[in-house]
């Protein structure tokens, strides 16, 4: 079994689950900062999930827009959130009974990883819910080796339909979940494929790596070619988009990727620098040198992957980059109403949020280089690139 990008998500998620039980986090520090752009008729919305990272942002937008929200989950993750909302407790694996006979205009399924469970919830709700909105992922595509991947690109195939190994087959499982939703809710479903989701409340450590590293200052290792493209989406932009789609009863499949125009790794790093006060200089270390030193994209240098089909990822990682990495099409989503806040806003808000969470962050397993390894690599790089060899 080869771990996928999902493993790197899960690695953090394990700690995250433990933290989930009582950290102060999100409610007091985060809000959707978008101006109201959308007209709304009040909807009754059921979340299957809703209390982790992306769910709360969606819940807040839904409430701000005047919709009536019900949460269904096990009551394990951030149970203190939204005390005034209706909360239905249950495990989606065999424990959906509490939803029987209840009616909603729409369901937002943020917690579906296994086709069997997504099918169960869709089947149970098909006669009492109008629209099923399923949160998938761009990892559900067969490959990142295509430039400008649009929503019709080939999807990953689950070779063993019985597998429930989310760590190894995250993308193919999500692709199959999508198929289940479409089959049970024909012409009544919406599928969202986000790329890497960032923003306040995100306890994985990818954007946070760059934020805190640049905030510390000094010489920072900047990976690859400054023009290498990257894509992220602010969870709050995703939330605005999702609620907008429900308000407009928009169906179909959408890549939720940002930002609006292409973002290079250098624009990203300099964008973060712009919101800090640190004295800093970037040293660009090329991809070949990094791979020779066994410094890998994503695991060691988060959110970056050189746009090449043959570039090695961390050992054992099955899904990775490709020529199309960072170049997934957002055209359809923009035409359906996806809007983006500036990178500076995402970076500043996430850094501010990070300071409320930094104590826990210190002790956790995380992605990104340690300062010691970064210094070693920089020293080796400089040694090979001495201008004068006296
Ligand atoms: N993070 C990224 O970069 C990224 C990128 C692309 C796609 N995605 C997608 O984003 C979604 C995850 O976002 P999130 O975790 O932040 O969502 P969330 O809705 O904020 O949190 C997950 C929710 O699911 C509930 N849940 C978990 N297991 C459950 C079960 N067996 N039965 C009932 N409820 C359950 C949790 O509550 P309890 O624990 O209390 O049950 C929690 O409320 C996934 O669909 C993932 O594929 C993420």
Structural notes for this entry:
This protein is α/β, with parallel strands linked by helices and 390 residues long. The chain has one domain: Rossmann fold, CATH 3.40.50. The chain has helices at 5-19, 25-29, 54-64, 115-125, 166-184, 206-216, 235-247, 265-273, 287-292, 331-336, 343-362, 371-384; strands at residues 44-48, 68-73, 86-89, 104-109, 129-135, 189-194, 196-198, 218-223, 229-234, 252-256, 258-264, 280-285. The strands form 3 sheets. The chain has a 7-stranded parallel sheet with strand order 3-2-1-4-5-6-10, sandwiched between helices. A 3-stranded mixed sheet has the order 7-9-11. Helix 1 (5-19) packs across helix 5 (166-184) and helix 4 packs parallel to helix 5. 46% of the residues are buried. Mean pLDDT is 89; it is low at 1-34. Bound molecules: NADP nicotinamide-adenine-dinucleotide phosphate. NADP nicotinamide-adenine-dinucleotide phosphate binds next to helix 3 and strand 7.
Write the layout of secondary structure elements.
Layout: H1 5-19, H2 25-29, E1 44-48, H3 54-64, E2 68-73, E3 86-89, E4 104-109, H4 115-125, E5 129-135, H5 166-184, E6 189-194, E7 196-198, H6 206-216, E8 218-223, E9 229-234, H7 235-247, E10 252-256, E11 258-264, H8 265-273, E12 280-285, H9 287-292, H10 331-336, H11 343-362, H12 371-384
Parallel strand pairs: 1-2, 1-4, 2-3, 4-5, 5-6, 6-10, 7-9, 8-12
Antiparallel strand pairs: 9-11
Helix pairs in contact: 1-5, 3-7, 4-5, 6-11
The chain binds NADP nicotinamide-adenine-dinucleotide phosphate.
NADP nicotinamide-adenine-dinucleotide phosphate is lined by residues 49-56, 73-77, 91-93, 110-111, 135, 137, 174, 194, 196-197.
């Amino acid at each position: 079994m080869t771990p996928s990008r999902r493993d790197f998500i899960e690695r953090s998620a394990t700690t995250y689950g433990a933290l989930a039980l009582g950290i102060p986090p999100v409610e007091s520090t985060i809000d959707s900062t978008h101006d109201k752009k959308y007209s709304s008729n009040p909807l009754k919305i059921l979340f299957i999930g809703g209390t982790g990272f992306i769910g709360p942002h969606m819940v807040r937008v839904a409430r701000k827009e005047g919709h009536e929200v019900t949460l269904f989950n096990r009551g394990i993750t951030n149970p203190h959130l939204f005390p005034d909302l209706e909360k239905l407790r249950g495990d989606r694996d065999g424990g959906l009974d509490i939803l029987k006979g209840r009616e909603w205009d729409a369901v937002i399924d943020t917690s579906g990883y296994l086709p069997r469970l997504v099918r169960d919830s869709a089947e149970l709700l098909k006669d009492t819910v109008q629209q099923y909105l399923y949160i998938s992922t761009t990892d559900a595509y067969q490959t990142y080796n295509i430039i400008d991947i649009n929503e019709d690109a080939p999807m990953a195939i689950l070779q063993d339909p019985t597998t429930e190994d989310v760590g190894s087959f995250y993308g193919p499982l999500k692709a199959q979940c999508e198929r289940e939703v479409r089959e049970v809710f024909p012409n009544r479903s919406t599928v969202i494929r986000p790329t890497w989701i960032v923003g306040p409340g995100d306890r994985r450590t990818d954007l946070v790596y760059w934020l805190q590293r640049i905030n510390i200052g000094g010489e920072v290792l900047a990976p690859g070619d400054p023009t290498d493209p990257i894509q992220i989406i602010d969870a709050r932009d995703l939330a605005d988009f999702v609620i907008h789609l429900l308000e407009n009863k928009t169906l179909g499949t959408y890549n939720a990727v940002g930002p609006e125009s292409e973002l290079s790794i250098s624009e990203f790093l300099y964008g973060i620098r712009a919101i800090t006060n640190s004295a800093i200089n970037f040293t660009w270390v090329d991809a070949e040198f990094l791979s020779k030193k066994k410094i890998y994209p994503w695991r060691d240098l988060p959110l970056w992957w050189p746009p090449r089909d043959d570039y090695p990822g961390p050992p054992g990682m099955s899904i990775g980059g490709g020529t199309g990495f960072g170049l997934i099409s957002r055209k359809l989503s923009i035409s359906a109403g996806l809007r983006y806040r500036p990178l500076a806003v995402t970076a500043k808000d996430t850094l501010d949020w990070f300071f409320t969470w930094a104590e826990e962050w210190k002790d956790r397993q995380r992605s990104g280089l340690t300062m010691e390894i970064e210094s070693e690599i920089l020293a080796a790089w400089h040694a090979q690139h001495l201008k004068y060899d006296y």
